Amino acid sequence: MNEELSYLDADLKGLFVETKYDDMKKLLDERSDEEVKEIYNHNWDIIKKYYDNENFDLLQKHIKFVAYSCFVIEYAQGRGLIGEDVFGIMMAVFNDIYEIRNKE
Question: What is the separation, in whole angstroms, between the first and last Cα of the chain?
Answer without folding.
Answer: 34
